[in-house]
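Please fill in the sequence for the structure shown.

STRUCTURE ENCODING:
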């Protein structure tokens, strides 16, 4: 199952992590990307990716709106 919608992640600091989580009985990390300040990643959920975890300060844009994650404490 692939969603036709994309999400856009824009890093507001260096070292923002985007972590893909698997589908299925056991949820596991399967892919990690690091973004530096100003970098943008466009991502899509797939048959392998059921969720994404964003660590660090970033702006996330989806079809449902825009949300900002907080910087690390």
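FILLED IN BY: designer on duty
SEQUENCE:
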């Amino acid at each position: 199952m692939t969603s036709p919608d994309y999400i856009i992640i824009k890093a507001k600091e260096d070292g923002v992590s985007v972590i893909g989580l698997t589908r299925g009985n056991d949820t596991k990390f399967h892919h990690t990307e690091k973004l530096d300040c100003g970098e943008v990643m466009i991502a899509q959920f797939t048959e392998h990716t059921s969720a994404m975890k964003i660590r660090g300060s970033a702006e996330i844009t989806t079809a449902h709106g825009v949300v900002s994650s907080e910087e690390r404490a």
